[in-house]
Amino acid sequence: MADLSVNFAGIKAPNPFWLASAPPTNSGYQVQRAFEAGWGGAVWKTLGDPIINTSSRFAATHFNGQRVAGFNNIELITDRPLDVNLKEIYETKKRFPNHAVIASLMVEPKQDKWHEIVKKAEAAGVDGLELNFGCPHGMAERGMGAASGQVPELVEKQTMWAKEAANTPVIVKLTPNITDITATAWAAVQGGADAISMINTINSLAGVDLDSWNTVPNVAGKGAHGGYCGPAVKPIALNMVAECARNPEINVPISGIGGISNWRDAAEFILMGAGSVQVCTAAMHHGFSIVEDMIDGLNNYLDEKQLASVEELIGRTVPRYSDWGNLDLNYKIVAKIDTNTCINCNKCHIACEDTAHQCIDMLTSPDGNKYLQVREEDCVGCNLCSIVCPVDGAIDMIEIPNGPPMTWNERQAAIRQPIA
Amino acid sequence: MHMNRMKDRSISLTDLASNFLEIEPDLTAKEAMDEANRCLYCYDAPCITACPTSINIPSFIKKIASGNVKGSAKVIMDANPVGASCARVCPTEELCEGACVLNDASQPIMIGNLQRHATNWAIHNNAQLFKAGAKNGKSVAIIGGGPAGLSAARELARLGFDVTIFEAKEKAGGLDTHGIVSFRLPQRVSMWEVEQVESLGVTIRPNTMVGRDIDPEEIMAQYDAVVLAVGMASVPPIGIKGEAAKGVYDAIELVESTKTPPMDTHLIGKKVVIIGAGNTAIDAATCSVRLGAADVKMLYRRTEAEMTAYEFEYEFAKQEGVEFRWLTSPVSVLADEDGAVKGVECIRMELGAADESGRRRPVPIEGSEFVMEADAVVRAIGQTRYVSLIESFGLTHRWGTVKVDLTTFQTSNPKVYAAGDVIFGDGQGDAMVVTAAEQGKQTAYSIYEQLVGSGMAQTS
Question: Which residues form the 4Fe-4S ferredoxin-type domain (chain A) (predicted)?
Answer without folding.
Answer: 333-362, 370-400
